[in-house]
Design goal:
By secondary structure, this protein is mainly α. Helices cover 75% and strands 0% of the residues. The radius of gyration is 27 Å and the shape is elongated.
Length: 83
Amino acid sequence: MRIKKFIFLLTLGCLVASPAYAYLDGGTGSIIVQGLFAGIAGFLAVIKLYWRNFKNFIHRLRGKRVTETPLADEQTNADTKEQ
């Protein structure tokens, strides 16, 4: 009974809505596009951080041998120590 009453009041509220008199200027679209690009860049950064773990997980599922490759920083440190 409560759900029917809630749905009735919600529908009634949507039908009796007053105008908002809102204005969206050109900067609003720019902010939306910026947010979209930031979301894509963030997603790609997360993928890059966890790519090796994901690759090793897939190799383990297929039963292949997992080869650990050193990070670029470790290679740089090793090259510096040899000199």
